[in-house]
Design goal:
161 residues; mainly alpha; 0% strand; rod-shaped
């Protein structure tokens, strides 16, 4: 007897019916019950572990947030200390620069006064020298005129030879 393609769906439906009847008539054994109980306990334990893991992660998140807040507070306090130190150092530098500027100004004024005195002394020396040269030129001119007049007078009064 050969099977045709039309017989395959019919056999398939019979096969599913026989399997359903065989499965319903059979009672679960003690081994299968213990496996089901174990599976239920494993699932409960797994769900408990998952919940504990979630709680652990949320606790870690809270701890990290606390640490972050603490670090932010410490950083802000440190930044405040640095700002105060910077302002103190800046004030000291300003005072030092002002003192150096005042000292430089006083030195410049002292040098300016000294240079003014030296230039006045040089100008006075040049005026004195100019006056002496004027007197010398007048004396030289007077001596030359007097000497020339004397030579001319001597030559005119001297009998000719």
């Amino acid at each position: 007897m050969t099977l045709a393609n039309e017989d395959l769906p019919q056999l398939k439906s019979y096969f599913y019916e026989w399997l359903a009847e065989a499965d319903s008539s059979r009672r679960p054994g003690a081994f299968e019950l213990s496996l089901q109980e174990r599976l239920i306990r494993v699932e409960e334990t797994l769900s408990n572990q998952i919940e504990l893991t979630r709680q652990g992660f949320s606790a870690m998140d809270k701890r990290f947030e606390g640490m972050q807040e603490q670090m932010d507070q410490r950083f802000d306090a440190f930044q405040g200390q640095l700002d105060v130190r910077f302002e103190v150092v800046q004030g000291q530098l300003d005072k030092r620069f002002e003192a150096a500027r005042a000292q430089t100004d006083s030195r410049f004024e002292a040098m300016q006064t000294h240079l003014d005195k030296r230039f006045d002394a040089i100008a006075s020396d040049v005026r004195n020298l100019s006056q002496r040269m004027d007197k010398f030129m007048l004396w030289s001119f007077s001596t030359t005129v007097a000497g020339s007049g004397l030579v001319i007078t001597v030559l005119k009064l001297w009998p000719p030879v």
